[in-house]
Amino acid sequence: MRGYVRAAYRGLVSLGAATAFTAVGYFGGLALIEHQNRVQLQDLSSFLLHRAEIEADFAFIGLSDLVEAGVAGCSPSALGAMRRQVYVRSTIKDIRVIDDAGMTACAAFPETLSFDEELVHPVDALPARNTLVGLVRLSQESTSSLGVLWRIGPQASIFAVVNTDALLFGVVPAALSANAHLELQLTNGDVVASFVAGDADREEFKESAATFSATSARYPLTVSMAIDGAV
Questions:
Q1: 19-28, 73-82, 175-184: which has the highest mean pLDDT?
Q2: What is the CATH number of the domain that holds 120?
Q3: What CA–CA distance (Å, rounded) separates 15 from 21?
Q4: Which residues contact 62 (CB under 8 A, 6 or more apart)?
Q5: What Å distances lie between residue 23 and 13, 14, 20, 35, 36, CA to CA?
Q6: How deeply is 160 buried, as exposed, middle or buried, from its count of CB atoms within 10 A (0-12, 13-18, 19+)?
């Protein structure tokens, strides 16, 4: 009888140990998966920021080419050079010459001016690491664009309107995209691109969401991501 009790006891101890070991392995596996998910999502926010930097780079290069060519006014040759840059740089929607009050002296494609909801004031542009260049938000009807500005004279700047509409679309994994909120902002909080899916605009989502962000060292840009925490 005593041998039977001892055997049963040993069996219970072994079962308890195995159960504990399995539980530790299970929860440890969950923790590892969560850590990997967070690392991947943080990497994704850095990738989105890199995409935004590339768009700003293309605008910067286009403006640099114009400045180096001496384009500083609204002559027919200057307008032709600006139109060519818009054609070559697919992310640029328009290039303009503006004064310090934000009034447009000329534009590569004047018809785009009808979409603007407000003037862009050069003094509001946030400086990039290259201080010749500044970034500012341009509000256009129901959306916003990124403006890249380069001062070319005491009271004049050349200004590129950069397309950010599709920057944040189609980049979140399908399993996470049902409830997600992505934003590209200037460092002063101005939103220049956004993507909202599902219930991501509700306060309940914001309180429980897992958040990730990345900030540029070269431009006054930051990307923020809010993903359904349970997913």
A1: 73-82
A2: 3.30.450.20
A3: 10
A4: 85, 86, 88, 89, 92, 95, 160
A5: 15, 14, 5, 18, 20
A6: buried
Distance (Å, whole) CA 42 – CA 40:
5
The contacts of residue 144 (CB under 8 Å, 6+ apart) are: 137, 138, 164, 190, 191, 192, 193
Q: How far from chain centre, in Å, is Cα 218? A: 14
Instruction: Quick: pLDDT tens for 63-111.
Output: 999 998 888 789 999 999 999 999 988 889 999 999 989 899 999 999 9
* Cα–Cα distance measured from residue 227 to residue 231, given in angstroms and rounded to the nearest whole number: 8
The string of pLDDT tens digits covering residues 198-214 is: 766 676 666 778 888 99
Instruction: Please count the structural domains in the chain.
Output: 1
Q: Which domain holds residue 14?
A: 1-231
Please provide residue 217's backbone torsions phi and psi, each rounded to the nearest 5 degrees: -90, -10
Q: Which tens digits make up the pLDDT trace of 28-47?
A: 665 666 667 778 878 888 98
Distance, CA of 192 to CA of 99 (rounded, Å): 22
Output the pLDDT for position 125: 93
Which residue in the block uniquely carries the two structure tokens 């049902």? 178
Q: What's the predicted TM-score (pTM) here?
A: 0.77
Quick one: tokens of 125?
């542009």
